């Protein structure tokens, strides 16, 4: 049990997927301008990442490795993620229209969110067991949400500041992300 | 009204240079620019995928049904990424190990998909080739610049050779994650400043 708790903490804080693994930066910069979109994106990622993590684990260990076709991993994973996103979209539309409406445009965007594909690849390269993959995917997704919501909070304030024209929006956003990343960097010492 | 080929090529080098003008595909930019060498390697790998997928998609543009076009593009891109992945594993193994999961992740690099959707699906073969080459080389240049900055000041070296004297204290935080964000942010601001002055 302790190993799983430690793994979760590692994935959420120490190896935070956005701020120390540099994955999912595009949605991180793109959807952090308002708190509402940030929470929507965080929820959608949590949903898809946990499913994608478990399905890719099954495909890797029950299909690609036994057949000796691991070189098809990239193609297989991206197809899984793309179809999973489509499936989740259709399923939510039918059964949970409220949630579907609130996730809105963020669901299709997840296909090209490298945090999802990256987390699946990281779990494979770390050779996790199935339960560990589940814990790690949840941890990475929660870490993504944490970073995104923290950043959105800071960014909402930035819009009221007087910033030189050249640095507005993305440039100052990246510098701010750097400062937040610096605070997450401190967790490295915990390992 | 087709634009001349050299214009399609040159626009990738300044007007639309990724990731500064097209703020897309930031993950590899931040992750692999620890050194110039990694930056150039990643840039060239992405450029190869970009050129090949642009050409193939442009050739197939009249045969791909519009409804499933994104899935088709992703499949084409994933094929070329697999080729690069295997080639780099065979010929440049040390670099391949350093770049790690970011080689397979070219598949979700928004620049490649973005060019396929915005350019190659609407233009004939040669302009698509020029566009892919321009954007690819522009991306490589940006990665090399950021990589050089971070390696020189963060590590005191350039392509592995020492730049400053023995008394230099490297700003180690520049080669870590926070330095990547701050470095890219400052570079982006600088680019905006230069183009405002023009």
Brief description of this entry?
The complex is a heterodimer of chains A (191) and B (198). Chain A is mainly α and 191 residues long.
Oligomeric form: heterodimer
Give the percentage of residues in beta strands of chain A.
under 5%
Which structural class is indicated by helix and strand composition of chain B? mainly alpha
**N/C terminus separation of chain B:** 28 Å
Please bin the fraction of helical residues of chain A. Answer: over 70%
Q: So what's the overall shape of chain B? A: globular
Count of separate DSSP helical elements of chain A: 9
Structure description:
The complex is a heterodimer of chains A (191) and B (198). By secondary structure, chain A is mostly helical. Chain A has one domain. Helices cover 75% and strands 0% of the residues of chain A. Chain A has nine helices and no strands. Chain A has helices at 2-14, 25-30, 35-67, 73-95, 97-103, 106-109, 114-125, 130-158, 170-185. Chain A is globular. Chain A starts with a helix and ends in a 6-residue tail after the last helix. The model of chain A has no long low-confidence stretch (mean pLDDT 87). Chain B is built from eight helices and two strands, in the order H-H-H-H-H-H-H-E-E-H. Chain B has a two-stranded antiparallel ribbon. With 198 residues, chain B is mostly helical. In chain B, strand 1 (157-158) and strand 2 form a beta hairpin. The model of chain B has no long low-confidence stretch (mean pLDDT 87). The longest helix of chain B has 31 residues, at 125-155. Chain B has one domain (5-197). At the A-B interface, helix 2, helix 4, helix 7 and helix 9 of A face helix 2, helix 4 and helix 8 of B.
